[in-house]
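Attaching the record inline, Q. Sequence:
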Amino acid sequence: MNFQVTVLKILVAYPDGFAVMEDLKRDMAILATSGRDWADRTKRLAAKVPGLDIFSQGLVERISGGWKITSKGREVLELMEAQPTALETPQAPPTEDTSATSPAPIPPLRQPADRAKRRRERRERRREARERARANAS
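Structure, as predicted:
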């Protein structure tokens, strides 16, 4: 997994592009354990911008306990996602149907509101389970 690309992708998903360190660490841990798809994707994106350094290039700023993506950081991320690599350039269409063998597209990062909703729902389910366990124990 490419750390710097992952930071850009996480920050762009947050409102105003700002996330506190706790949120960044949590999201990084989730993505780091999400499997090969994410690692392969970040490596492909990083290969499009050799020498990427999010801090010295002014793509991310450190602000009051967190990091914020800059407009330049958003532009670089868009550039990475828009440029086809030599492996991704369209070639002559194959004569046979390969749609069944093509890999599924990688879903975009979930928005913070989606994550917050899922957390609330999990908390509610756990609370209800505790209440049921207490009622059954009585």
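Residues 10 and 72 are 15 Å apart (CA to CA). Residues 108-138 form one domain.

More tomorrow.
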